[in-house]
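Here is one chain, start to finish.
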Amino acid sequence: MIRILVICTSGHGAGSGVTRHIMNYMALIAKNPDFKIFIGKNNADYQPNIDKFKEMGCQIADFPERFSRPLAYMRAIYRFIKNNKIDMIHVHGSSGTMCMEFLPALLGGTKERIAQSHTTGNQYPIIDRLLRPLFHKLVTKRLACGEDAGKYMYGKRPFTIIHNGINCNEFQYNDNNRTVIRKELHIDNNKVLGHIGLLRPEKNHKFLLIVFKELISIDPTWKLMLFGKGDLESEIKEQVESLELTDKVLFMGIKDNVGDYLSAMDIFVFPSLHEGLPFVVLEAQANGLRCILSDTITKQVNLTGNVDFLPLDVSADEWAGYILEKYDDDLSSRLKSSKKAIDDIIGKHYDMNHKAQILSKIYNF
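Its structure:
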């Protein structure tokens, strides 16, 4: 049996896309009797996420908080690896700070040290640059969610791409879900713009709200559904109030059945400052939604032809105009579009089962 410690450097917070990515794989891989999976956590993690890992058959490894107690965190990883004879560590991150996991892993005797890059930027550029040389020496396998995320993290070094796979059938458009949810939210007669993501700086909610303000100045029948939690929640709510959008913006928090809510949307918008290959955009495509993204996001995410890219340096009113241009009130073709998108996603091997098989082969070192 191969004993594997899996750590997400950003933690398993509410609404974390990387956590959802890990869960999608572990739901399949943890069932394999050849593997014993340990999930690293700390006290700041969202407990329902940890409970889901347990339900999948994963064991939980408790560590101190990574950034406030770095030395205690590294010592705890070293002890855990020594005591549990960990064969492999798989760290999901976006900077050279993954040395905080790989160094104690090396000292503890773990021979396989896998890094997986999920984005094209990070919040610690100076520390990142200082640690990159050591990081490259410690890593034994390099993974990335896409070409851009891999090049960002590893430069010209070889890496394996494991795209963010999804369970496509969970996200197929459903007319009944649309009707029920819109009625519950009292938005039956509204046009709905949607966004799903952590309430953090890189998701660029500040710009999104300015775009939305321009949008309703042209057509006040629009509503904005925001899904997610995060450090900027209070700040974003203050901006909503200052822009006089309180009755137009719906803060939806965290939902387990996000696919149902996608059916209630008309357009999905994602103006992030940086990303890897965001699987939430795959989910939106699977639902048959037109997706409008910032051009900082890799073009590889466009698997269906239903994704458009706009620069962040153009004005908010240009974004608003483009949203209006792409809006289509004909729902008769939405299910057909969703089914075709799912065929495209599966045909390009972005379905979860295929990706889990690839990761299983990597784990069988």
